[in-house]
Amino acid sequence: MATSVSVSLEDVPSLELMTELMRRMKCSTKPDKRLILIGPPGSGKGTQSPIIKDEYCLCHLATGDMLRASVAAKTPLGIKAKEAMDKGELVSDDLVIGIIDEAIKKPSCQKGFILDGFPRTVVQAEKLDEMLTKQGTKIDRVLNFAIDDVILEERITGRWIHQSSGRTYHSKFAPSKVPGIDDVTGEPLIQRKDDTAQVLKSRLEAFHRQTEPVIDYYSKKGIVANLPAEKPPKEVTTEVHKILS
């Protein structure tokens, strides 16, 4: 059985307590928001979500991370999820919804949440709506990171990494001084397996097939906002603020 570790507030350093109190006071005036971020790989969701999370005091729910955390914590849902994974099966939509349901009741999700990487299918979107309706809430906004496949291909297949330091380069937007060589160590750069044109093509096909219908589903509810995801990150952030303010 999983035991929860309780921490006495007396043991929490004053600075951490004060920082959290200040954050909660600042957050108390923010409007509640429940958001979904949708976009193909490389569209910039990962860059924008921490900014949105901090600005609007939301919790960030990445379903893959949440599943792993539930499995590690051996929660009842985590145990079920592990059974499915061990058999090589996909974790059922109902299980994932259950894990989201648990997560959004935490104090950190009091002001709302950002869902990233879920829902991927219309069935998942319907189940999510059903669960939120039972809680008396709903999705407020779906941010669609709209970007042309050709731009994505250029963005992703141009990425190069220095493996040991994590330094990143881009053959067009941020090239190394010598092509294929790290500026600092002179060691060769590598490309991640996911960053090849072939892998991107299959990921994009899956995105268009499964997830674009989800955008249509939410468009009918009038809550989709299209972001010009091909623009520089700062401009996309400005657009996000306009949409959410």
TrEMBL record:
Limits of the Adenylate kinase active site lid domain: 159-194
Short name of any one Pfam family annotated for the protein: ADK_lid
InterPro entries xrefs: Adenyl_kin_sub, Adenylat/UMP-CMP_kin, Adenylat_kinase_CS, Adenylate_kinase_lid-dom, P-loop_NTPase
Molecular function GO terms recorded: AMP kinase activity; ATP binding
Reactions the enzyme catalyzes: AMP + ATP = 2 ADP
Residues of the signal peptide: none
Enzymatic class: transferase
The protein's Enzyme Commission number: 2.7.4.3
Gene3D superfamilies the UniProt entry points to: P-loop containing nucleotide triphosphate hydrolases
Keywords: Kinase, Nucleotide-binding, Transferase
Function in brief: Catalyzes the reversible transfer of the terminal phosphate group between ATP and AMP. Plays an important role in cellular energy homeostasis and in adenine nucleotide metabolism.
Family from the record: Belongs to the adenylate kinase family.
HAMAP family in UniProt: Adenylate_kinase_Adk
Annotated protein name in UniProt: adenylate kinase
Organism of this sequence: Vanilla planifolia
